Amino acid sequence: MSSKNGIDLSLIQDMVEEYKDIKGSLITILQKTQEVYDYLPEEAIKYISEKTSIPCSEIMGVATFYTQFRFQPVGKYMVMLCQGTACHVNGSKKIMKTINEYLGISDGETTEDGLFSLKCVACLGCCSLSPVMMINDKTYGSLTPEKTREILRQLKEEN
Amino acid sequence: MKIVVGQGSCGIAAGAAKVYDGLNNNLDKSKATLTFSGCVGMCYLEPIVDIYDDDKMTRLVRVSENDVDNICKFAQTKDYSLIENITISKDDEEFLTKQTRIALRKCGIINPEEIDDYIQSDGYTAIEKVLTTMSPEDVIETIKTSGLAGRGGAGFPTWFKWNAARQSQGDEKYLICNADEGDPGAFMDRAVIESDPHNLIEGMIIGAYAIGAKHAVVYVRAEYPLAIKRLQKAIDQATEKGFLGKNICGTEFSCDMKIKAGAGAFVCGEETALIESLEGQRGMPRLKPPFPAQSGYWNKPSNINNVETFANVTWIINNGGEAFAAMGTENSKGTKVFALTGKIKRGGLVEIPMGKTLRDVIYDIGGGIRDNKEFKAVQLGGPSGGCIPAELIDTVIDYKSLGATGAIMGSGGMVVMDESTCMVSMAKFFLDFTAKESCGKCVHCRIGTKRMLEILERITTGKGQENDIELLEELCFAIKDGALCGLGQTAPNPVLTTIKYFRNEYEAHINDKKCPACECAEMLTYSIDKELCKGCTLCAINCPVKAINGSVKTAHEINSEICIKCGKCKEVCKFSAVKLS
Lengths: 159, 581
Ligand SMILES: Cc1cc2nc3c(=O)[nH]c(=O)nc-3n(C[C@H](O)[C@H](O)[C@H](O)COP(=O)(O)O)c2cc1C
Ligand code: FES
Known about the structure:
Helix content of chain A: 40-55%
Structural class of chain B: alpha/beta
Distance between the termini of chain A: 31 Å
Structural class of chain A: alpha+beta
Number of domains of chain B: 5
Bound molecules: flavin mononucleotide, FE2/S2 (inorganic) cluster
Strand content of chain B: 5-15%
Oligomer: heterodimer
Radius of gyration of chain A: 18 Å
CATH architecture of the largest domain in chain A: 3-Layer(aba) Sandwich
Strand order of the largest sheet of chain B: 10-9-13-11-12
CATH topology of the largest domain in chain B: Rossmann fold
CATH class of the largest domain in chain B: Alpha Beta
Number of domains of chain A: 2
CATH architecture of the largest domain in chain B: 3-Layer(aba) Sandwich
CATH superfamily of the largest domain in chain B: NADH-ubiquinone oxidoreductase 51kDa subunit
CATH topology of the largest domain in chain A: Glutaredoxin
CATH class of the largest domain in chain A: Alpha Beta
């Protein structure tokens, strides 16, 4: 059941079956779909629409409302940089600039080699360690420009 | 001997997992057992390891992997000199001893993933007492006596909401917990869920019993994966032990609980938007009335409370409403948790009785301002709140006194700022946030916040115009009056309070094109101090636009015509010779 872009829809088949008749589950379905593909592929949205009888336009309406959902593949490393109040006061702007310069990407972009994506978020709940960023599921605190470059350099090297 | 490693999100970010793994691999388990807890709230000292030996507890702080060896040796020898250098100081102990803990009372002490730990510390006794000896009306009456008010921001009396939902007709009712924790800078709800999830669950079941709900939902924000994981585990354990599900504690009362993960939208913290989101829709607020108590989730009577509100309930049931009401002031009872962050020496979670002052929290508990800088202001209530200036540091912490300053109690974010924070830029920061997070349903909020942001942007880039302050104020009042929900109605607060207390800073930006705090990049000039410059050429090499001239071992100079104010030279200079003005 693989579509023309190589999206294997069988990966979400069981999940959609499980949730499609539970009312109010659209966001949960979209979250679980994103867990599988790392973003929401067009094919998957069409498939969900067919199965749930919710029009694609409505699904897109919901999906675009929430910052969690993405419509493009992201890099191997998802860098979420906190721009919450505590991080702002403790210099997250400088960290932003460091990442912009070091990786050559700004908020919402992905590096050409497909390794890193950058996304600004509000508060990761680790304010005491501000400024903070999260890469995939790991949180890095008390960032300085040097420390940030070092973390990114190490990840680059690992690949 | 028992060794407990604190593993909340922040502890883990500071390296607690590595410490735990190190101990797990190397500790002689016949000498000591190893376990973990959530977060005790002394975030500035993470990673924290507690060692219990007989009745004595020794707290180790800022523990790193390198300390693992010595801790293991200590377990063998009980030679305290081995761990002396990482044992908490008397001063730091005061961070906790000066607090009064109710909502957080078990955080960082028990293991959040073991229901038995919770039960052994008097857990699930309140629900048993409620279900076997109290009527729903009794519960509501106890909460009324306690004076508990909502900790999610608005401070509405909890008993009143419970009563309204109880009185509402209908056999299907819902109890909802708001764990969206949208204020960027607050993290007490995360800490409660990660560190003591059963306390939240027990408080919620009591609430469900009081209003007559058979279903409970917790709406947790997506950025808190660990909280979601631990809460799910706790729900499963509680269900298994019969504290959730059918016939709780062997009584007639049944209630189930599930988690819904948010998807990243600040407005979903607003209760009616939260309900829309629970129903799988765009999180757009509904018009009130009808209030959720009449028509909420799936148009059924619903009651929504914040995590911290629920976290107080078990204590109130066990100790009585009077004991809770004995703390605090005339208009605000009990304790409040604050997430103390920013330019503070000791940052973390602070729970104090209402009636203390901001000074008590910032200086007495928080230890004052970092790096010997000057205290300038404190931000309370996040994007809906305001900045309270240094001269009002003796303001009493209760709903009324904080409200009188133009700020709000809020959910408990307390971000401390020093002289290097520009207040106009701070206002811009919040407006940027609310403009992005506005759901777009009403014009005042959607367009109004955008226009305000534009004005603040031009002020902070040196293009401010003469009447900008008045224009901002006019917009503020229009938005406050016209916006549909709390997001828009409170969005002007950060601007209004900074204008009220820091008008001179706005004027300096607009009239003199100067940023007194030296934060707004466009208005700064960079120069090199000839005395301090050693002529190392590092700045000239790093300058992206070649604006720096000078030869080796002679003082360098910045050509301000070419300089793009990127700050690179200041960052690389090893002699602090680059100055801002
Ligand atoms: C824009 C906006 C965001 C809010 N965010 C939160 C939040 O993150 N957490 C919360 O508990 N309450 C939040 N509230 C308040 C809720 O609408 C609601 O009053 C609260 O959850 C009720 O619980 P309480 O009575 O226990 O405080 C927010 C309100 C508004 C207007
Ligand atoms: S403000 Fe960045 S983690 Fe809270």
